[in-house]
Design goal:
alpha/beta; 2 domains; five-stranded parallel sheet; 11 helices; 15 strands
Length: 385
C-alpha cells in the first residue's frame, strides 16, 4: 500500500507539471473524437467474433466501440499515415472505459531507414495495455519522434485474449515541444531487457514515468526527461549485433546525458558472466564514443522471493558482473537485487518464479535507481569511459 500511495503522489506531481497550454498543440490524428463517424479510421467492421465500429454512448457521446466476442478474436481500429515532425515531443492521450484493457500501439516508421520499423521494437517501447476502467478516463504517453520517426500508425484494440469491450471517446496525438539538443534539458535513456521495458504494464506504471516524477519533485528547477528503451528478450549482444543500437539509438537520439543500463537475464543464455561483463563494458564504451560526456548508472536484476536457491544462482554471476563493472569504472550502481531482497515482499514480481517486476516492484526499482541518479543530477560531471 505504501508503494501505491507514493506512486499516485508522484504521478500527480508529474501530470501537474505539464503546462495546460501545451495540450493545445497541433493534433495529427484525424477525427480523434469520432464526431465524423469512421472517417480516418481503418479495420472497422463487425461479425460473430468481434465488433469495431463508431457508435454513441447513451448521453450522445460518439465513441469507437471495440468488442471481442470470442476468445482471442481481434477487435481494433487503426489510423495510418500519421506524420511526425523531427525531434518533436508528442503527447498521445486516449480517453477510454470498458470491461477489458485497451491495447494501444503507436508504431513509428522511417522512409529513410526501412529497418527502423522493426529495430525500434515499438511493440514494447510505445505500446501498452491500459487499465480497465468503468468510467471514462484519459491515459497519456509521451513520444519523442527523434531523428528517425517520420510516420506512424496508431492501433486501438481490446487487450488480452478474453472476451470484453472498450469504448474510446477520444484519441489525440499533439505536438508539444522540440526535443532538439538543449543544454537546459537532461535526457536519461533506460537501456535493457523486459525487466526495464515492463511492456505488460500501462505507460504510467513504467520506470520512465515514475522517475520523471521523482526528478521533478527533487529538482523542480531542472528539466529532466526519461526515455524507456527497454525491449523484451534482449541481451547486450542482440542490441549491438542486430543493428538496433545503430538505428534506434545512435542515429535516432541526438542527445543522451545519462544511460541507465540493466542486462543479464537473457545474456546468461548466450555466454558466461565474464563475457557478459566485457560486452557490457563495450556497450558503455560505444555510448561514450557516440555521446561525449555521457554518464552511466549500472543496474542489476531483481531478487525473486519464494523461489528455489538454484534459480537465484543462475542469475547471481550476471548481477555480480554488473556490480564489478560499476566498481571498476566508478559508475553509480542501482542494486535492484538487494533492494528487492530487503523488502521481504513476494508481491514485488508478477508471480513466484517470474523475474519481471509488478507495479510495486517497479516502484522499488525506481526508488533504487533514483538514489543513484540523484548523485549525477546534483553534481554534473563525467565518468571515465
Amino acid at each position: 500500500m505504501r508503494h501505491l500511495t507514493v506512486l499516485v503522489a508522484f504521478l500527480f506531481v508529474l501530470l501537474a507539471s505539464w503546462p495546460t497550454a501545451a495540450h493545445a498543440g497541433n493534433d495529427i490524428i484525424t477525427n480523434g473524437d469520432f464526431s465524423s463517424g469512421a472517417t480516418g479510421w481503418s479495420e472497422l467492421g463487425a461479425d460473430d467474433k468481434h465488433v469495431a465500429e463508431v457508435t454513441k454512448l447513451p448521453d450522445g457521446t460518439p465513441v469507437l466501440h471495440l468488442a471481442r466476442l470470442v476468445e482471442k478474436a481481434d477487435a481494433r481500429g487503426v489510423q495510418f499515415n500519421l506524420k511526425f515532425k523531427p525531434q518533436t515531443l508528442y503527447r498521445l492521450a486516449v480517453t477510454i472505459r470498458g470491461t477489458a484493457p485497451c491495447q494501444v500501439n503507436l508504431r513509428p516508421s522511417s522512409a529513410a531507414d526501412p529497418r527502423y520499423f522493426d529495430l525500434c521494437r515499438s511493440w514494447a517501447t510505445s505500446a501498452a495495455p491500459l487499465d480497465v476502467t468503468a468510467s471514462l478516463v484519459t491515459r497519456e504517453f509521451w513520444f519523442d519522434s527523434g531523428l528517425k520517426a517520420q510516420t506512424a500508425f496508431l492501433a486501438l484494440g481490446v487487450g488480452g485474449d478474453a472476451p470484453g469491450e472498450v469504448f474510446v471517446s477520444r484519441a489525440a496525438l499533439t505536438e508539444e515541444r522540440s526535443t532538439a539538443p538543449d543544454p537546459a534539458e537532461t535526457v536519461i535513456a533506460h537501456i535493457g531487457d523486459s525487466i526495464t521495458a515492463t511492456s505488460y504494464l500501462p505507460f504510467d506504471r513504467r520506470i520512465d514515468v515514475l522517475l520523471d516524477a521523482m526528478c521533478l519533485k527533487e529538482f523542480p528547477g531542472r528539466r529532466v526527461r526519461n526515455i524507456n528503451l527497454g525491449v523484451d528478450g534482449e541481451s547486450v549482444i542482440e542490441l549491438l549485433d542486430s543493428g538496433r543500437y545503430q538505428s534506434a539509438i545512435k542515429e535516432h537520439l541526438a542527445k543522451i546525458d545519462i544511460a541507465v543500463i540493466q542486462y543479464g537475464a537473457n545474456d546468461r543464455r548466450k555466454y558466461d558472466a565474464a563475457e557478459f561483463q566485457k560486452r557490457l563494458g563495450a556497450l558503455c564504451d560505444k555510448l561514450a564514443a557516440d555521446y561525449p560526456g555521457i554518464r552511466f548508472v549500472i543496474g542489476t536484476g531483481p531478487y525473486m522471493h519464494g523461489v528455489d536457491a538454484s534459480i537465484l544462482k543462475q542469475y547471481a554471476p550476471y548481477w555480480q558482473a554488473s556490480r564489478d563493472l560499476a566498481a571498476e569504472r566508478s559508475f553509480p550502481l542501482a542494486d535492484i537485487y538487494k533492494a528487492f531482497e530487503a523488502q521481504h515482499d513476494i508481491a514485488l514480481t508478477r508471480k513466484v518464479g517470474d523475474i519481471h517486476p509488478s507495479v510495486a516492484g517497479v516502484q522499488v526499482r525506481a526508488e533504487c535507481e533514483f538514489a543513484a541518479l540523484r548523485v549525477l543530477l546534483a553534481a554534473p560531471g563525467q565518468h571515465k569511459p
